[in-house]
Amino acid sequence: MSLSQDTDMIIIGGGPAGMFASFYAGMRNASVKLIESLPQLGGQLAALYPDKYIYDIAGFPRITAQELVDHLRAQMSRFPIDIRLGVQVLNVVKHEERRFEVITSEGVHFARAVIIAGGVDAFQPRRIELPGARKYEETNLHYSIQDLNSFKDKKILINGGGDSAVDWALMLQEIAAKVMVVHRRDKFRAHEHSVNKLMNASIEVKTPWEITNLDGGTSIKKVMLAHCKTMETEVVEVDEVIINFGYLSSLGPIAEWGIELEDGSIVVNSRMESNVSGIFAAGDITTYPGKLKLIAVGFGEAPTAVNNAMVYINPDAKLSPGHSSHMKLIGAN
């Protein structure tokens, strides 16, 4: 394994929170190394739903996931951030205060502080548990959408009740021949505004129903549905089936780093610091009283983690350097 010189901050995770933390660390004149296990930046946004619209980012009435990632990447480009893609972090060892050894699949790196902004292991969709379902994943059973146009003029059934299911339905109604949303509960978990749009759209909504059988040869041709209360059944002809039950993320090696965890998340205080001094966290991987797992929240947690990491690295540093309008950015006019 190769050795590298100490970096002020190593940020683990290249999703939105990690990307913004990298940029903000650059604003604090910190040297930064960003390590991401996926082959591209953006985390789940880029890997799972690049064409999906996001509506709760300040300043953007709506923006696709990939567009948001592109904006974050352009923002990061103002600073000489060392980006390592396709690299898995295997262990983080604290030797002393302001001296961390980060062991990865490509070598060993040293940092004065560490910010964890995402899982280091692969995330997997919650799959539908029906006989034979796995074989259809090669054809027309989907857990994410990479290209909206591939669903043009098709009959689509979406199963799920969260924001992804509702948002995909609203987007697909513009290009599909027919969209049906099936949810096993009476109420949706998605944002109220999105649910209202769904109910007023030309989309067939069936609640509380669930899928009980998938039928076809190499691809699904028919889906059997059952009412969750009356047990009434119905068979629906489909071209494509999309399952949106959420995702299972594994903390992987993080569980062995001596960091306090709660329900699969890193416990942090108001400084976004874990129980290990010098290891901070931001984004969906964190938990604290009142935590909300939103991209917008992660964008706020990132500078909190960076600013407190700066004070940890140098106790004489200011916690808050002032507004960004007071700072001179590389490449700024």
Q: Please give the number of β-strands.
A: 22
CATH architecture of the largest domain: 3-Layer(bba) Sandwich
| H/E series | EHEHEEHEEEEEEEHEHEEEEEEEEEEH
- Going by CATH, what is the homologous superfamily of the largest domain? FAD/NAD(P)-binding domain
Global outline = elongated
- The low-pLDDT segments are none
CATH class of the largest domain: Alpha Beta
Distance between the termini: 42 Å
Rg over alpha carbons: 22 Å
Q: Return the domain count.
A: 2
Mean pLDDT: 91
Q: Main sheet, how many strands, which sense, barrel?
A: 7 strands, mixed
- Give the number of helices: 6
User: From the helix content, strand content and strand pairing, which structural class follows?
Assistant: alpha/beta
How would you describe what is shown here?
This protein has 333 residues and is α/β, with parallel strands linked by helices. Helices cover 20% and strands 30% of the residues. The chain folds into two domains: 6-123 and 247-326, 3-Layer(bba) Sandwich (FAD/NAD(P)-binding domain); 127-243, 3-Layer(bba) Sandwich (FAD/NAD(P)-binding domain). It is built from six helices and 22 strands. Helix 1 runs parallel beside helix 3, helix 1 (16-27) runs parallel beside helix 6 (295-313) and helix 4 runs parallel beside helix 5.
